């Protein structure tokens, strides 16, 4: 008991130094409790990204484990401040969890079509545009899943507007004009085959490029928020985004033309 009281009187930095000399479990436990607020803060900040498949309490628990492992691996000589060091590790842990859960649901096109059919049916019955809650209830689907499918649809539409391009006489990319609504990018890209091709194109991107595309278009985070999630600068996020869009355009142009 007296040893625990002595530990509580020490600063975080003193405890970290002490742990380098004396690998006692009590020191690690005390440090983990002190730095648990970082895991809680990051879990709350990134909640929208994993809310579909994991509880916030479970992520905080995983964060606590990451802190304990981080204490073992932290080198005060080589690494940044422990707060910075462990924040990156916890973000990385959450990103690993997200990565293991595919951002594109199976049978996406069929599920999204069901949402659109439900929207039309409910509109005819009620005379007004239904809410996400009404559509989800009609389909016996979770509201979060319904909203996520619609966000993915928005991403497909946004990307399609950038990617359905042609070449003018000088070799420059231009939008394809058309009066036929069925030939418009929004409609064409909702067809199952083209959605599949775009999904394959995204799958060929580098890991961070895929994350930026998903966070920006599906989770609707802005560049500043994505920079915080991935632990890099905002200009770097813009650069990654531009690189990803260029690669997707090239891939889709090959497919279309």
Biggest β-sheet: count, sense, barrel?
2 strands, antiparallel
- Total beta strand runs: 2
Distance, first to last CA: 74 Å
As for the CATH topology of the largest domain, it is Arc Repressor Mutant, subunit A
The global form is elongated
Number of helices: 14
The portion of residues forming beta strands comes to under 5%
Helix percentage range: over 70%
Counting structural domains, the number is 2
Give an overview of the whole structure.
This protein has 257 residues and is mostly helical. It folds into two domains: 2-100, RNA polymerase sigma factor, region 2, helix turn helix motif (Rna Polymerase Sigma Factor, Chain: A); 144-256, Orthogonal Bundle (Arc Repressor Mutant, subunit A), CATH 1.10.10.10. Helices cover 73% and strands 2% of the residues. It is built from 14 helices and two strands, in the order αααααααααββααααα. It has helices at residues 2-9, 12-21, 25-45, 47-50, 56-73, 82-100, 108-126, 132-139, 143-163, 185-188, 192-203, 207-218, 223-230, 234-256; strands at residues 165-167, 173-175. It has a two-stranded antiparallel ribbon with strand order 1-2. β1 (165-167) and β2 form a beta hairpin. The protein is elongated and about 70 Å long. It starts with a helix and ends with a helix. 23% of the residues are buried.
Notable traits:
Rna Polymerase Sigma Factor, Chain: A; two-stranded antiparallel sheet; 14 helices; 73% helix; elongated
Give the arrangement of secondary structure elements:
Layout: H1 2-9, H2 12-21, H3 25-45, H4 47-50, H5 56-73, H6 82-100, H7 108-126, H8 132-139, H9 143-163, E1 165-167, E2 173-175, H10 185-188, H11 192-203, H12 207-218, H13 223-230, H14 234-256
Antiparallel strand pairs: 1-2
Helix pairs in contact: 2-3, 3-5, 3-6, 5-6, 7-8, 7-9, 8-9, 11-14, 12-14, 13-14
């Amino acid at each position: 008991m007296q040893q625990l009281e002595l530990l509580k009187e020490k600063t975080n930095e003193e405890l970290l130094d002490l742990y380098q000399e004396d690998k006692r479990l009590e020191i690690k436990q005390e440090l983990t409790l002190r730095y648990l607020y970082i895991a809680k803060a990051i879990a709350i900040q990134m909640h929208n990204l994993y809310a579909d498949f994991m509880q916030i309490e479970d992520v905080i628990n995983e964060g606590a484990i990451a802190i304990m492992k981080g204490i073992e691996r932290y080198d005060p000589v080589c690494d940044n401040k422990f707060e910075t060091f462990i924040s990156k590790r916890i973000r990385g842990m959450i990103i690993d969890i997200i990565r293991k859960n595919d951002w594109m649901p199976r049978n996406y096109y069929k599920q999204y079509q069901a949402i659109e059919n439900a929207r039309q049916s409910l509109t005819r019955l009620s005379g007004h545009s239904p809410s996400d809650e009404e559509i989800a209830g009609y389909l016996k689907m979770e509201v979060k899943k319904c909203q996520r499918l619609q966000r993915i649809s928005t991403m497909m539409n946004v990307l399609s507007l950038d990617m359905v391009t042609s070449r003018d006489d000088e070799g420059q990319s231009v939008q394809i004009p058309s009066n036929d609504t069925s030939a418009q990018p929004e409609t064409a890209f909702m067809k199952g085959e083209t959605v599949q091709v775009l999904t394959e194109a995204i799958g060929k991107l580098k890991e961070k490029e895929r994350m930026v595309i998903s966070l920006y278009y599906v989770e609707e985070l802005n560049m500043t928020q994505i920079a915080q999630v991935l632990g890099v600068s905002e200009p770097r996020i813009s650069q990654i985004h531009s690189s990803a869009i260029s690669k997707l355009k090239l891939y889709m142009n090959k497919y279309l033309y």
